[in-house]
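Here is one chain, start to finish.
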Amino acid sequence: MRDTRLDRTVAIKVLSADVAGDPESRARFEREARAVAALNHPHICALYDVGEAPPLESANRAEPQSHVPIQYLVMEYLEGETLGARLARGALPLDQVLRYAIETADALAKAHRAGIVHRDLKPGNIFLTKAGAKLLDFGLAKLGVAPASALAGLPAAVTREHLTAQGTILGTFQYMAPEQLEGKDADTRTDIFSFGAVVYEMATGKKAFEGKSQASLVAAILEHDPPPIAASQPLTPSALDRSLRKCLAKDPDDRWQTARDLTDELKWMAESRATAPSATASAAGSRSYLRRHAWSIATLICVLVAIATTVMWLGGRMARAPLDSAAEAKPVIRLQLTLPDGLTRVPSQPPAVSPDGSRIALVAVDAAGTRQIYLRPLDSTALQPIQGTVRALNPFWSADGRKLAFFSDGRLETIEIATGAVQDVAPVPNPGGPGVWSADDTIVFPRSFGPLMKVSARGGTPVAATPLDPARESSHMLTGVLRDHRLVFGSAARGGLSIASPDGRTVSPLTDAITRGSFFAPWLADPNATDGDVLFIRGTTLFAQRLNGATGILSGDAQTVAQGVTGLPTSAAEPFSVQSNTLAYVDANGTSTRLVWVDRQGRILGPAASTTGSFRDMRLSPDGALLATSLVGTSDRIFQAVFLDFSRGTVSRLAYGVYSSMPSWESTGSDLFLTVRTPSGGYAIQRVHAVEGAAPEPVIATSADAYPMQADVSPDGASLVYLRCNREGHADIYVHAMRGGGPDRPVVATPALQGSPRISPDGRFVAYHSNEEGSLDVYVRSFPDGGQKRKISTGGGSRPVWRRDGGELFYLSPDGDLMASTIITTPAFAAGVPQKLFRTTLDPTTTQFATVYDVHPDGKRFIMLAPVSDVPQPVNVILNWQTLMRR
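Its structure:
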């Protein structure tokens, strides 16, 4: 079928007329709609729409006419065949078995995390396309905390005729778990049993359980194990056989407990197979392999050399001697860490070195878009995923190295590495970077704006740890915590380093010579030491300098530690981490971006400009001829607003202040509104004419309690919405009257964090994102009163952008997918089910105030960022970096 409204091919699933009046069939149909609507995953068939149509009249008037409405689902159109059809031709090659198994297991993991159990996993419900496997048919799905298995409570007639298709009861039984056959409740481990039976059949071409009758088949599932895979496929890895046997355990407690763990095991098998070329490979193939994996091989060699040298010099121990001791200087060892194929490090996330310097935590995204923390021990080449850290940001270690803290969906959480036990600590709506976890179990952390906060690692309500003056500064950057619990911190606006007392009431200046830094203090481990080291970045060079913690006096000259260090797109985090004798930092190689045009299918149409650099905050002019954006300076890491003229290829500065960003066009295209930093250190919103050199006009100034940022103007130019950020670190959406005066008033004010306000083209609604429900989601409210609210995103979202005619609202999913929701505003507001357009290369974890894409007025293409180079951005590691301070 062709969807003429959105110009795409779709599949229509209709409840047939002969069962449309059956309550169980209708319930199954509705269950499938609810289940699929709750899921957004590249390997789950997408649901576009659901509805009900009037019954069709029979052409034969003599026949009785149906009065039952037609139930239908509009679904993603798939080209290919079912796995069942493919298995009719025999077993699959091992590479395909692993690929489809990983994709299906990852889809199950997504469903299970959403509280959905499929309960009918079989080859007929897996569809194979060029893009991979797609999981289908959630008609038997168990949603949330539904009662026990539907099979247990239904009459036999219903079980046979309605819960499975006519004539396929034997085929369905062959993939049922023992607990299903015994009428017990089904949980996620039930799907894992069925998954094992399906993959076994993929690998062998034979069903895991067979019988000449229904009774003998049930007995085989309950009492027997299938033959080893090697009996029919001798070259199959033993690890796959072992994993499938664990899937097919009779007792659910003996199976894999989560599909996520199973997915990781299968990925490990695939990676091991990919990195182990056969002995019969040709010389040309070997050279090609070496070229493809040069980074990984180089990393392995570096790690082995580092381990050998470190063992020789340190006697097998990773401990730092005080710098002023008479011990002989240790050799400086440098190496690079790169990720294996299928994993991408999140650019905005710094590494986190463990307290003993032996492990590094990284935030990475897998091929399915799942973001979590991975652990890299320096005595191993393996990268270990840390389960329970999905959507994690900004990890940092406890003082004893046994736990990691991280932020996820607006919460601060901790996880014990050995057991995987996760503890919810506190709500944190706007984390700005990693924190510090002291030995007394106090956690101090920065936010994207606002003062530093502190909370007990055992849980509680965060309180301000530093006093913030909104008239002079927007955020504090955490540098370090001293032995006596004083905080060393910096101000993004004022510069310099200060020390706050443990209660946060008194602040004294430490030094003006350093504006940003990470305070490494040896007295945290050595009570006899008196001095510490401050590491800081100037331009792209990382320096270190000695600092007396008692007097605040810098001694000696700043020493170069590393060059080519990148900056991060947040004012509260640094791109490096240092503990013990280990320093890790993000390499600037491959961080430059370019502006490209992308169509609705995700195809890059070409460059939008020849200029490259670090861009942010993109807004196209009303006619699409100009782009207002922010360009980050390479030496000072300061945002400057510029606009690009596409026809002439020119770049012009829009403002000449210290800082200017977040442009928004007036509907005429003649003026823009910018967030600028004032000379006093606060923020203000100014009006700037789109003419180079024009003087800005002040619109909204910083008050004693709050400062404004990120404005958007109504189509008639009468109103301006903006974020009002207060000293407690909250951001609400306010409206400012451009004509007639009057006090500014709130449109959205909650204890949560709001961002990205965008007024609709007709001026009647405002879209924004908020984490008022925990995760970041997109909402629409009536404007200017804000009284009516509608949630748009499903599964999280941020950075909404209206199509210029108001007919669609776009946003970014937490996995970086560009989503679209059809919008109808008359006679009443209505929003369609969001649909994925394509996976972007954008980083959805960058600061929540950044606008990283925009839609052209024609609605057919987007302007967004793309990396200039596809070379992976490595993490550089320096062992014994303190030796550099002696030179």
